[in-house]
Design goal:
Layout lengths: L2 H24 L7 H17 L1 H11 L17 E3 L9 E2 L2 H15 L5 E8 L2 E8 L2 E7 L5 E3 L2 H4 L21 E9 L2 H13 L8 H9 L4 H5 L4 E11 L8 H10 L9 E4 H15 L7 E8 L2 H7 L9 E5 L3 E14 L5 E12 L2 E7 L3 H7 L6 E6 L6 E5 L25 E2 L6 E2 L6 H12 L11 H10 L13 H4 L7 H14 L4 H7 L7 H11 L2 H6 L2 H4 E2 L2 E2 L6 H12 L1 H12 L23 E5 L7 H10 L3 E3 L8 E4 L5 H9 L3 E2 L1 H8 L2
EC number: 6.5.1.2
InterPro entries: BRCT_dom, BRCT_dom_sf, DisA/LigA_HHH, DNA_ligase, DNA_ligase_AS, DNA_ligase_CS, DNAligase_adenylation, DNAligase_N
Keywords: DNA damage, DNA repair, DNA replication, Ligase, Magnesium, Manganese, Metal-binding, NAD, Zinc
Length: 687
C-alpha cells in the first residue's frame, strides 16, 4: 500500500468508525454487526502500526484515534458524573494465539512464569458503575467517555434485581464507606421478545437485539417509560473502594464478596493457572453460555491477583491485565435473490435482503436487513451475489459482506429507487438523517401503519382491528386515514367473507366503544414522533382534550427554558408542534370529533392535597406487582401522604404484596396486618 492510499484509507476508517461509535454508544442503533465493526477497527489499528507517522498526523489534525479512546456514550439530558476511578474498555481478540501472547506479555512484564487468571463471561449489555456509600445505593452512572458518564440513577432504580442496600457479610469486614462497583445492565431474551412483539403489533420498527434495547432503555429520559421494561444487572468489577483495606486480594474473592453483599454476580467463573487452563475455561464457557440469563459475546480473562493487576497497569484505553476473547459470530453464505424496500409508518425506506434460505445459529434465515441506501452502497451488495450473513449478538441477522469470488459478471450495482415503491412519490432525504423517506402523507403503506398503530393494544386498543384486518380495509379502499375507522359501514364489511356477520358486529361494537377510550390512548395513537404512552398520559393530564393539545404553543411546553410539564422536554414539544402544524393532522382531530369520538380525560388531579388519603398509613411492599414497580408504588404512597417502611411490624397499616412475596408476607399474616394486592391498592388510592 502506498502512503497516499494508506492516508486516505486511514481518514476514511477514522470517519466511518466515529460514525458507528455515535450510532452504537449514543443512539443504541448500530447499523453494522459487532464483528464487522471489530474488523474495521482492526484494519485501522494495523494501518496505524504500519504507518505510525500518518497516524500521528491524523491525530494531530482531528483528535485521538478511535483505537486509543473509549467509546463515548454520554447523551443530552442527563447530568454527568465523574467516576472516582476511570472506567476502561478491554483489548479484544478473536484469535487463540493472541490470547496466548497476552499471557506471554504479562509474564514478561511482571517477570514471572506462573500466573493465575480468572476467566469470566463477557456480558453483552452496557457498562454501568454503581456506587454504594455505607452500604446504601447512591448512584448509577454509565461509562461515558471513561472519565465521566451519564447519571442514570433514576432509571437504574427501576431494576428490581439491584439492591438498595448491601448486606454486611456476617463475621466479615465492615461495609466500605464508598465503593464503586462495575457491571453490566442487560435485558433477557424473553423480555426483549415481549417488547418487540408489542412493537410489532403497534407497527413500530423492531429492535435488533437485547443489548441495543437495554442501552436505548437506560438512556430514556422518562424513568416511567423505563419502568415498563424489565432491565437486569450483573456486577463483576471493582472500581473504587474506600477504605482500600476493605478489599480482597483477588478478583475471584471479589466475585464472592459481590455475591455475599447480595448483588447479582456472574453465574460462573473459572480460576485458571496458565494459558492452557485459560483456553480450556474459555471453551467450557462457550459450551455453557447459552444457559446464562444474559447474552455473552466472549470471555474476559483477568489476572486474579489485584496487587499484580495494579503492577501491570493500563494503557490509555484498557487495562494490561485483562483481555477479552470474543467468540466468532456464526456466519453462512447464501444467494441474495432480491432486494425489497419496506416503507415504515413515517415513510422511511428500508432495504431488505431476500435470501435463499440458509441455516444459521439454530434457525433458518431468509431475510436480513440491509439498513439503508448508504450501507448498501458501501458494501456494494448486488442482487445475484453470494453474501455472508451473520448473527452475533444480533437476533435479526445482517448481511455483512459479499463473496466477490462468486460474483457473476451479469451482476450490476443495485440502484436504490428514487421513488416510493408503493405510491411512486419521489423520495426525499431529511436533513441530518441517512434515511430516505416517502413524503406522501397518503401513501397506502403509511396509512396502513398509522391505522395499525392507532388500533393496537398499546394505543386505542380496538379488538378485531389487527394488522391483517387493517391491511384488508386499506386494500379495499375503505381506510384512507385514521378517522375512516369510524366511518366503516356494516354492509361493506359483510362483503369480506361468508359467515362474517358475528365478527363484523363485534368489530363495529369495539369501534363504537373505542370512541370513549381514555384520552392518552388517542394521543399515543396519533403516532407523533417521540410521544410514548407515558408522555401521552402527561399530555392528557395537562391538556384534557385533543383540541387543546393540537392548539398548544411552544410556551405551553417550555417557559424560561424549562419544561412546563414534567417529562415533556424541548424535543417532544417541537415534535408536537410540527405534527399539528400540518393541516392534515389537524383535520384528523376535527374529523374524529365530528364522528362522535369523545376521549375520556383523566380524573382531575385534586387540588386538595391528596396527602390526606393515606396520611398516617404505613405500607410495606413485597413481591412483584403486576402493573408497577415497587418504586412506583412507593412513589404513589408517598404522594398520597403515606409512608413506606422496609419491615413489617405491628405498626404497619398494610402489606402490599405481589407475586413471589417472601417472608414479609408470612410475618404480616402472623401479626394480623392486612395484606392487599395491587388492585385493592389502586382502589384505595382512588378513594
Ligand atoms: N456494531 C457497531 O456499530 C459497534 C460500534 C461500537 C462498538 N461496538 C462493539 O463494542 C465493542 C467495543 O466496545 P467497548 O469499548 O464497550 O468494549 P468491549 O465491549 O469490547 O469491552 C469492554 C466492555 O466489556 C464490558 N464487560 C462485559 N463483561 C465484562 C467482564 N466480565 N469484565 C469486564 N468487562 C466486561 C464492560 O462494559 C467493558 O466496558 C466492539 O468490540 C464492538 O463489538 C459495536
Ligand atoms: Zn409512498
Amino acid at each position: 500500500m502506498t502512503p497516499d492510499a494508506a492516508q486516505s484509507r486511514l481518514a476514511e476508517l477514522r470517519a466511518t468508525i466515529a460514525r458507528h461509535d455515535e450510532l452504537y454508544y449514543r443512539r443504541a442503533e448500530p447499523e453494522i454487526s459487532d464483528s464487522e465493526y471489530d474488523r474495521l477497527k482492526r484494519e485501522l489499528a494495523d494501518l496505524e502500526t504500519r504507518f505510525p507517522e500518518l497516524a500521528v498526523a491524523a491525530s494531530a489534525l482531528d483528535g485521538e484515534s478511535p483505537t486509543a479512546r473509549v467509546g463515548d456514550d454520554r447523551t443530552e439530558g442527563f447530568a454527568t458524573y465523574r467516576h472516582r476511578q476511570r472506567m476502561m474498555s478491554l483489548d479484544n481478540t478473536y484469535s487463540p494465539d493472541e490470547l496466548r501472547e497476552f499471557h506471554e506479555r504479562l509474564a514478561k512484564l511482571l517477570d514471572r512464569e506462573e500466573l493465575t487468571y480468572v476467566v469470566e463471561p463477557k456480558i453483552d449489555g452496557l457498562a454501568v458503575s454503581v456506587t454504594y456509600e455505607h452500604g446504601k445505593l447512591v448512584r448509577a452512572v454509565t461509562r461515558g467517555n471513561g472519565i465521566e458518564g451519564d447519571d442514570i440513577t433514576a432509571n437504574a432504580l427501576t431494576i428490581r434485581a439491584l439492591p438498595r442496600k448491601l448486606h454486611p457479610v456476617p463475621g466479615g469486614a465492615p461495609l466500605p464507606d464508598i465503593v464503586e462497583i462495575r457491571g453490566e445492565i442487560f435485558m433477557t431474551l424473553a423480555e426483549f421478545e415481549r417488547i418487540n412483539k408489542l412493537r410489532e403489533e403497534a407497527a413500530e420498527p423492531l429492535y435488533a437485539n437485547p443489548r441495543n434495547l437495554a442501552a436505548g432503555t437506560v438512556k430514556q429520559l422518562d424513568s416511567r417509560e423505563v419502568a415498563q421494561r424489565r432491565l437486569e444487572i450483573v456486577l463483576y468489577g471493582l472500581g473504587y473502594c474506600e477504605p482500600a483495606s476493605a478489599l480482597p486480594a483477588t478478583q475471584s474473592a471479589w466475585h464472592e464478596l459481590v455475591r455475599a453483599w447480595g448483588l447479582p454476580a456472574v453465574e460462573k467463573y473459572w480460576i485458571a493457572r496458565g494459558p492452557d487452563e485459560v483456553w480450556a475455561a474459555v471453551q467450557e464457557l462457550d459450551r455453557l453460555r447459552d444457559a446464562f440469563s444474559y447474552a455473552t459475546d466472549g470471555a474476559v480473562v483477568k489476572l486474579d491477583s489485584l496487587p499484580l493487576q495494579r503492577e501491570a497497569g493500563a494503557t490509555s484505553k484498557a487495562p494490561r491485565w485483562a483481555m477479552a476473547y470474543k467468540f466468532a459470530a456464526e456466519r453462512a453464505e447464501t444467494l441474495l435473490r432480491a432486494i425489497t424496500i419496506q416503507v415504515g409508518r413515517t415513510g422511511v425506506l428500508t432495504p431488505v435482503a431476500e435470501l435463499e434460505p440458509v441455516h444459521l445459529s439454530g434457525s433458518t434465515v431468509s431475510r436480513a436487513t440491509l439498513h439503508n441506501r448508504d450501507e448498501l452502497a458501501r458494501k456494494d451488495i448486488r442482487v445475484g451475489d453470494y453474501v455472508y450473513v451473520e448473527k452475533a449478538g444480533e437476533i435479526i441477522p445482517a448481511v455483512v459482506a459479499v463473496n466477490l469470488s462468486r460474483r457473476a459478471p451479469a451482476c450490476v450495482p443495485y440502484v436504490f429507487p428514487a421513488a416510493c415503491p408503493v405510491c411512486s412519490t419521489p423520495v426525499v432525504q431529511i436533513e441530518g438523517e441517512v434515511a430516505l423517506r416517502c413524503p406522501n402523507y397518503d401513501c397506502p403503506v403509511q396509512i396502513r401503519r398509522r391505522a395499525q398503530h392507532f388500533a393496537s393494544k398499546a394505543c386505542v386498543d380496538i379488538d378485531g382491528l389487527g394488522i391483517a384486518m387493517v391491511d384488508t380495509l386499506v386494500e379495499r379502499g375503505w381506510l384512507r386515514g385514521i378517522p375512516d375507522i369510524y366511518r366503516l359501514r356494516r354492509e361493506d364489511l359483510l362483503t369480506l367473507g361468508k359467515s362474517v356477520e358475528k365478527s363484523t358486529d363485534n368489530l363495529l361494537a369495539a369501534i363504537e366503544a373505542s370512541k370513549a377510550a381514555e384520552l392518552w390512548r388517542f394521543i399515543h395513537g396519533l403516532g407523533i414522533t417521540h410521544v410514548g404512552a407515558a408522555s401521552a398520559k402527561d399530555l392528557a393530564q395537562k391538556f384534557r382534550s385533543l383540541e387543546a393539545l393540537a392548539d398548544a404553543r411552544y410556551e405551553d411546553f417550555i417557559a424560561d427554558k424549562k419544561s412546563v410539564i414534567e417529562g415533556i422536554g424541548e424535543t417532544m414539544a417541537l415534535a408536537l408542534i410540527e405534527h399539528f402544524n400540518d393541516p392534515r393532522n389537524r383535520a384528523v382531530i376535527t374529523e374524529l370529533a365530528a364522528l362522535g369520538v369523545s376521549p375520556a380525560p383523566p380524573p382531575e388531579k385534586s387540588t386538595e392535597p391528596a396527602s390526606l388519603l393515606l396520611a398516617g398509613k404505613t405500607f410495606v411492599l413485597t413481591g412483584t406487582l403486576p402493573g408497577m414497580t415497587r418504586d412506583e408504588a412507593a412513589a404513589k404512597i408517598e404522594a398520597a401522604g403515606g409512608k413506606v417502611s422496609g419491615s413489617v411490624s405491628k405498626k404497619t397499616s398494610y402489606v402490599l404484596a405481589g407475586a413471589e412475596a417472601g417472608s414479609k408476607l408470612a410475618k404480616a399474616e402472623s401479626l394480623g396486618v392486612p395484606v392487599i394486592d395491587e388492585a385493592a391498592f389502586l382502589r384505595m388510592l382512588a378513594g
